[in-house]
Amino acid sequence: MALLKFTDWWDRFFAIGIILKGLDGVLELVGGVLLLFVAPAQINRLAVLVTQPELTEDPNDFLATHILHGAEGLTSHVVLFTALYLLAHGIVKVVLVTALLMDALWAYPWMIVVLAIFILYQLYQLTRTPSIGLLSLTVFDILIVVLTWHEYLRHRRRRKGMA
Is 12's pLDDT higher than 60? Predict the structure, then answer.
């Protein structure tokens, strides 16, 4: 199986998006592994350490108070669920991105389906707790779905022409 060749700007745009998805998957894997070895109390202490200077300066700092509040509510079950969630997402993304970069035709529809599921979940989360970050991620994922669909159709046509 040959590596995907990037012949035009559309291919390059697709490759950049897919590589960013792969890096996101690697970060999720790293985060998931780290969470397997960190207790909620340690996360809480780290949150206090990180937010203390900002809260000393401004006791109502939006970001610092939310970080602290989130860390206070952590239980070992929540941390384990989050670790497993990140590991599952990371593994799926890294496998699919690797397959796409190796031009495996089967990976295109799978990437579309997986991202569509993520997008649906993200849209649900946006209705509950809107955030610019989650909105940006959702728009990025929609863009990657469109690019993946375009590339999939191109590669199918090209392969049918070769057969």
Answer: yes
136 exposed, middle or buried (CB, 10 Å; 0-12, 13-18, 19+)?
exposed
- Closest C-alpha to 118, from 147, 149, 86, 95: 86
pLDDT tens profile 66-116: 888 888 878 888 889 889 988 998 999 999 999 999 989 999 999 999 999
Nearest Cα to Cα of residue 100 among 17, 9, 10? 17
Angstrom CA distances, 69 to 32, 44, 78, 131, stand at 21, 9, 14, 17
Cβ-based neighbours of 100, under 8 Å, separated by 6 or more: 4, 18, 107, 108, 111, 148
Could you tell me if 68 and 47 are in contact, meaning their C-beta atoms sit under 8 angstroms apart? yes
How far apart CA 138 and CA 122 sit, in angstroms, is 6
CB 4 within 8 A of CB 107: no
139-159 pLDDT per residue, tens: 999 999 999 999 999 888 887
